[in-house]
Amino acid sequence: MPEHPRPATRPDPRPAGGAAPLPPLPLPLAREAVDRAGLEREDPGLLDRLWQEAGTGVLHLRGGRAPVRDGALVTVPPAGPVPPGAVFLGRRERADGEASAAVVLVAHEDGAGAGSTPDTAPEGLPTDVAWVGLRDVAAGLSDADAGLFTAAVSVTHWHASHGFCPRCGGPTAVESAGWVRRCTACSVQHFPRTDPAVIMAVTDDDDRLLLGSNAAWPAGRHSCLAGFVEPGESLEHAVVREVGEEAGIVVVDPVYRGSQPWPFPRSLMVGFRARAPRGQTERADGVEIRSLRWFSRTELVAAVRDGEVTLPGAVSIARALIEDWYGGTLPDETTLIS
Ligand SMILES: [Zn+2]
């Protein structure tokens, strides 16, 4: 067999032009100030013990919404027996500086598609909380609350879709304080799943930004190109392939910019910059992407101000990538992308 040729030098990981490393993207769903305390999960009596432990807080989730008051999640002390399906989310610092407090998630299926206030409140919960969705509130939460809420929504989606074994079809049962499901028929363990997707800020040689309008979106809504990583594919290859499929151009030099979970239901968005060398003409695929457009900074601000273009919401990595390229906060005539 012929040997694979090895490059004489490794690619330079720094941005083109020898510029200083780019600052980290501010990502509202990538804030984890809570110790997940993964080793504790293996204690089979953990949840019963935490239920009796001073300071434990229970976070109720109903239809993906959490109770919020004054810009903070509201947790309540444990009451009654440990509910089946409770999940140990981790330990957070306590306001009094004493030993960290455990947070346990109790997810309720009811409330999906209903108004923001369920008919009945879980025991001990104040009546003046608002039941709010993650996308609507995450940007204003503390790092600890944003991380807890993101983890809670993510793991709840996983439980909801993995009641049966993908291998043999048998029913699965929860283990490890909510972080494993084991098949009751074939004993295989199943772990929470995350689907990686790449999202790209593509620029040309004039430093214009390429945005696309998805065929499923209202007219005017624009965002970065994005797509799921395929089995057996690297992130960098997915960047090149997705831009090729959606825009008909070849990009080079993908540079990692940051990642954040997007638990709707289980994506991990991995953000890149990539460069489109001169001499190529973009073309929308006409199926997934309705139209494509290059923007200078001046053109983008004007299009947003005129209401001609709507940008993704503040919680999304797309917004962070666009503002990263822009070099600051963009005007706020925006709506949330769902
Ligand atoms: Zn099985």
Automatic annotation (TrEMBL):
It catalyses: a 5'-end NAD(+)-phospho-ribonucleoside in mRNA + H2O = a 5'-end phospho-adenosine-phospho-ribonucleoside in mRNA + beta-nicotinamide D-ribonucleotide + 2 H(+). The keyword Metal-binding applies. GO terms for cellular component: cytosol. GO terms for molecular function: metal ion binding; NADH pyrophosphatase activity. Keywords: Hydrolase, Magnesium, Metal-binding, NAD. Its EC number is 3.6.1.22. It is an enzyme of class 3 (hydrolase). The keyword Coiled coil does not apply. Its cofactor is Zn(2+); Mg(2+). Residues 1-13 have a biased composition (Basic and acidic residues). CDD domains: NUDIX_NADH_pyrophosphatase_Nudt13. It comes from the Bacteria. NCBIfam families: PRK00241.1. Belongs to the Nudix hydrolase family. NudC subfamily. This is NAD(+) diphosphatase.
